[in-house]
């Protein structure tokens, strides 16, 4: 079963919901996998390639 994450952008201490992300990896989760998910979320939800986002993932 895939794990679902809510993706939030942090601006001035406020979390803004951007959307969701599904982890499809079948192997055991590791810390580097979490960083990979954050990078995927940044690429998916950035408005431009140069935009820097602060992203928070929360498991649903």
Q: Percent of residues in beta strands?
A: 35-45%
Instruction: Report, as a whole number of angstroms, the end-to-end distance.
Output: 13 Å
Radius of gyration: 12 Å
Reading the helices and strands in chain order gives: EEHE
- The SS-based structural class is alpha+beta
What's the count of strands?
Answer: 3
Largest β sheet strand count, sense and barrel closure: 3 strands, antiparallel
Rounded mean pLDDT score: 85
Report the helical percentage: 25-40%
Strand arrangement in the largest pleated sheet: 2-1-3
Describe the protein's architecture and organization.
- This protein is of the alpha+beta class and 60 residues long.
- It has one domain (3-59).
- The protein has 1 helix and 3 strands.
- It has one helix at residues 31-45, and strands at 3-11, 14-23, 55-59.
- Strands 2-1-3 form a 3-stranded antiparallel β-sheet, with helices on one face.
- A hairpin with a 2-residue loop joins strand 1 and strand 2.
- The longest helix is centred in the middle third of the chain and has 15 residues, at 31-45.
- The protein is globular and about 35 Å long.
- It starts with a strand and ends with a strand.
Describe, in short, the structure shown.
This protein has 60 residues and is of the alpha+beta class. 25% of the residues lie in helices and 40% in strands.
């Amino acid at each position: 079963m895939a794990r679902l994450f809510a993706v939030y952008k942090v601006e001035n201490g406020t979390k803004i919901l951007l959307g969701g992300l599904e982890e499809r990896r079948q192997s055991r989760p590791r810390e580097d996998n979490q960083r990979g998910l954050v990078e995927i979320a940044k690429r998916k939800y950035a408005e431009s390639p140069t935009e820097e986002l602060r992203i928070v993932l929360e498991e649903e």
